[in-house]
Every structure is written in C-alpha cells, then in structure tokens.
Amino acid sequence: MVVGHLFLNKRVMANNKTGFTSSFGVIMAAAGSAVGLGNIWRFPYICGQYGGAACLFVYLLFVFLIGMVLLMTEFVIGRRSGFSPEKAFPALYPKRPSWKMVGLFGMFTCFLILAIYLVISGWTLGYFWESLTGTLASIADDGFKAHFDAFVASPWKPVVFLVIFLIFTLLVILGGVQKGIEKVSKLLMPILLVLVLLLCVRSLTLPGASKGLAYLFHPDFSLLTWDGILAILGQALFSLSVGMGAMIVYGSYIPRDSNILKNAMWITVCDVSIAVLAGIAIFPAVFAAGQNPADGPGLVYQVLPVVFNSLGTVGQVFAVLFFLLLVLAALTSAISLLETLTAWLADKGMKRKVAAVIITLIEVVLGIFVAYSFTGGPLSDITPGGKNFFDWANDLTGAYLPPIGALLTVIFFGWVMKKEDIYDELSNHGVLKISWFKVFYHILVRFVAPAALLVSLIASILT
Ligand code: PHE
What we know:
This protein is mainly α. The protein has a single domain (about 1-460), classed as Amino acid/polyamine transporter I. It has helices at about 1-5, 10-15, 25-35, 35-50, 55-80, 85-90, 100-135, 145-155, 155-175, 175-205, 210-215, 225-240, 245-250, 260-290, 295-310, 310-345, 350-370, 390-415, 420-425, 435-460.
C-alpha cells in the first residue's frame, strides 16, 4: 500500500538527491525563507503602529491558527505530489487540471515579490558596504535622509548592488538543493540568530532602552483598527512565505519520514522569535538615541544610521552587524523565491541550471524597473493609477496576492483533496499518531482559515 502513494512523489523517488537530507535541513531552509525583510524592518514597525502588544497578540493568533495551518497545507501538497505548484495541484486532483491556475498565480506572486526583494536587498547590501568602508560613519546626523534619497535615485548604485546580491543568490541555487540551499541555510540561520541576539543585548543595555520596549510591548487596543487587522494578517502570511507556492516547493523536498507538524511548529517559532527579537534590537536603540520610530524603510536606512553614529566606534560595529543581519536574512528568502521559480521551469522539463539563469535574467530586468521607479529615479514619472512600480508591486504582494493564493490553496486542501490522503501524509503513512488531526482538518482547514481569509479579503476590497 505504501508503494501506492509513494509513486506519486516521482521526482524525489527517482533521484533522492534532490530533496533535503534531514528534518533539521528542512527547518533551516524553510525558516530561512520565512525569516526575511518582513521580520526585520516590517514587523517591528507594524507592531509599533497597531498597538504594540495588542498587535503582537493578534499576530500570534493569525500566525499559529492560519499561517501555520497554511504552512502544513503547502508542505503536504508538495511532499504528496513531489512537484512544484503548477503540477502539484493537478497531480493531486487529476479530474480538474485547471487547478494548476492556483499554482501559476503563485508563480506570478513570486516573480513580483522577488523583484521588490532584490531592490531592498540591494540597498541593504549597499548600506552594509558603506558601513564597512566608513562612509556611513562620516555622514552628519541630519544628512541621512538626503543620503538615502540620493542612493535610491542614483542610476547605477541600486542596480549594481541588486545584481551582486542576485549573483550570490543564483550561485546558491546552482549549487543545488542539498549542497546549495540546505548547506547555506544550515550555516546562515545560526549566524543570524547570534547576530540578532548580540544586537538585542547591545540595544537593551543602552540608557533609556525601556522607552523602546514600552513602545513595542505596551498593549494599546485603541490603535488596533480594522485596517490594522488586515495588515497583520497579510504580514502573518507574507512572513511565513505562504500563499504563493514557495512552501509547496520546499515541501516537495521534505524527506518521507520527516514530521510535517513538528517542522511547521519549529519554523513558525523561529519566524515569530526573530521578528520579536528584531523589534527588541531596533526600538530601544532608536529611543535611546532620541530618534523618531519612523516608517519601515525609513527607519532602517535613515534613522538607524543616526543611532549607530551616536554610539561611536561601537556603533560602527553595530552598524556592520545590523546590515549584515539584514543581508543574510534577505538572502535566504531570495534563495527560496528563486528556487521556487527555478523548480517550476525545471518541472516543465527545462534543465535546472538553465532555468535558474533564465529566471535570474528576467528578475534583473524587473528589478531595474522597480529600482528606477523611486522619486528622482529614471522611471519615477511613470505612475499608472497614481502609483510607481514599487508601490504597485509592494501593495499587491503585501496585501492582496498572498491572501488570495492562501484562500484558494486552503479550499483545494480542505474541500477538494481526499481527507484520507491528507491523513496519510501527515501521519507518515500511519507511522505517527496524530490525534490532533480532527481539529486540524475539520475546524482549522475547512472553516477557520478560509473564513478568516475570505472575511479579510472582502473587507479590504470594501475599505
Ligand atoms: N517570508 C519572507 C519575509 O518575511 C518573504 C518571502 C515571501 C520569502 C515568500 C519567500 C517567499 O521577508
């Protein structure tokens, strides 16, 4: 009987070198995808804006009840089928091949996310370089805004750093799933944890740190608006990299005997912890230096350098470590995005390496469009519907596309796929005892997750 379902997972069966080697590898790679720019610059700011601990509370609820359910859903779809999204859905329900549209929709989302990701990662790499070479340290406190604006509007700087960052990402993908993605994630994720902890310790021991903690952890439910709730849900999905098929691809690399629930729990805990730690590292420092906790990108590139400079030589080390942290976090996420798109073309019969290079070239072009769309940039005048390319891509991928992808995926999972298959996959063909299955399937998958996603989508269209 076991053979009966194993045949589905053709790719992993035919060449078991293509999957991850262990549960630890799965957790590191997927946590690498989850922990990214979303955790380090977006989460702390959202938390500050929507009521501190009140936001944190809602976020945790969404992450564990909806995000983690989707993570498990995508893992099951990936491992069961052995394919990337476009082929995975029809493989599990051959009667209606049109379900592949959900997979294609995810690929579209990934293309857009990777383009914005590359731009922001390029800036970050640039700032890392400038913190290393002492350029940042030589700027006066009131000069950082102008410096950032000039950096972003420069016709060559953002592009050069974007391309360097993308080349690093491509090299990892060319290294393969095991020797590239898994190895690099196992190396970088622990470094990332150490870096963020170091930054927390430094930040917390600054005079006046408690004001920053209060900003982050004081629950103010009056700030928790309906808009805020939607933003928090979007953030929960984006942060766990669910709703666009990326975790279906990583799911197809999960070893047969690895426990999907445990993996998903560890990944979620890592993701949430790093987000909270990033807030602890950033806000106390911002308050200690008497700065204003401004909005996301501004905070990291315009306010934090002032904080670093106020700390003297220690601050310069602090700056190098911080931008390194951000580059590494972005790298493991960009790796998962490029891998998702590469696996998609590879499943269509293209050679893996050729696929990776083609996607890379397309993303360079998309990335340049996005990078040039900022104020002062060569394409900043093109604003269809009043928004530049960056704002379009950012709004679509932040608020709308992931919840739509997530809703369709969870409907497929709960209402189209066979319950027995899901049980079989989550229990590793009956080896694991999964007494939680009924609650998971009949309550969370079929009702809570789709209802929450639907309500929030309708509400966001209405508002
Ligand atoms: N989870 C990443 C972040 O929080 C973003 C991401 C989305 C990465 C989708 C890969 C796939 O920044």
